[in-house]
Amino acid sequence: MRILVGLPAYNESPCIGKLLDRINEIREKSKLPIDVIVVNDGSTDETEKYLIEYSNSYAHINYLNHNVNKGLAQGMRTIIDYALQQLKDEDVLIAMDADNTHNPNIIPYMVNKLKNNALDIVIASRFQYGGREKGLALHRKFLSKGASLFANILFGIKNVRDYSCGYRAYNIGFLRKLKEHYKDKLIEAKGFDCMIELIVKAGKLGGKIEELPLVLEYNLKESPSKMKVVRTINGYLKLGLKYHRLRKVR
Ligand SMILES: Nc1nc2c(ncn2[C@@H]2O[C@H](COP(=O)(O)OP(=O)(O)OP(=O)(O)O)[C@@H](O)[C@H]2O)c(=O)[nH]1
Ligand SMILES: [Mg+2]
Question: How remote is the C-alpha of 198 from its chain's centroid?
Answer without folding.
Answer: 10
